[in-house]
Amino acid sequence: MFFDRKEELKALLSLISYEPNMITIYGPINSGKTVLLMELTKRISREFAIFYINLRGRFINSYEDFMKVLFSVKEGSLKELLVDVLKSGLAYQGIPIPEKVFRDLIENKNGDPFVFLEDYFRELRDKERKPILVIDELQVIGDLKVDGPLIYKLFNFFVRLTKETHLVHVFVVTSDSLFIEKVYNEAMLQGRADYFLVDDPKGGILRPQGKLELLAIRRALEKL
Q: Could you tell me which residue ranges the AAA+ ATPase domain spans (predicted)?
C-alpha cells in the first residue's frame, strides 16, 4: 500500500532534476522504500528511462548470477533494444541486452560489462533520455567476491556514472544497517552519496539526510 508522501516524492523529483548523483535510501523492511520508488517511476517525465533491479529473494552466489539479474536478455539487436528504450521511456526490470552480447560479455568474458553499460547509458543520454539505475536490496551481494569484493567495484562504477561522467542517477536501496555501516567505514560512500532515511510508513516521512558523518548514520539507524 502506498501512503501519501507528497513531500517525499517532491524531494526525489527535485533531486533527479539536478546533476546525476548517487542516492542511498535506507530504512527497515516494509517501511515503504520500494513502493516509494515505484510511485516515483509513475510520476517522472518521459525524458527519463528507469532500470529497476530488485535483488530481494534472488539467489546470487556468483558474479554470473548477479549479471543475470542485472541484465534482461531480449530478442533483437542492441540498436533495436536501444530504440525501444528511447521510444518508451518506461521502467525496466533489468537492463535490456541482446542474447549474443550477453554471452560475449558474461559467458565468454569478451569485454567489460561496466564499459558496455557506460556506453549504453551514454547512448541514451546523447539521445536526450536520462537514465536512472535503481538497485534494491544491494546488501544481497555484500559478500560476493570477484578478484576482491564486488561491492567495492560496483560503488566505484556508480561514482564514475554519477560524479565523473554525469550520465546516470543511481539509487542504492537497503534495509541492512550493518551493510550501510560497512560500506561507509570502507570509504565507499564517504562524500560520494546523499542519504535518505525512510521511516515506518505510519510515521509518514522521508528525511533527506545530506552527506552524513558515520556517527549521524548510526544514530539514524538506531531509531529504526
A: 19-203
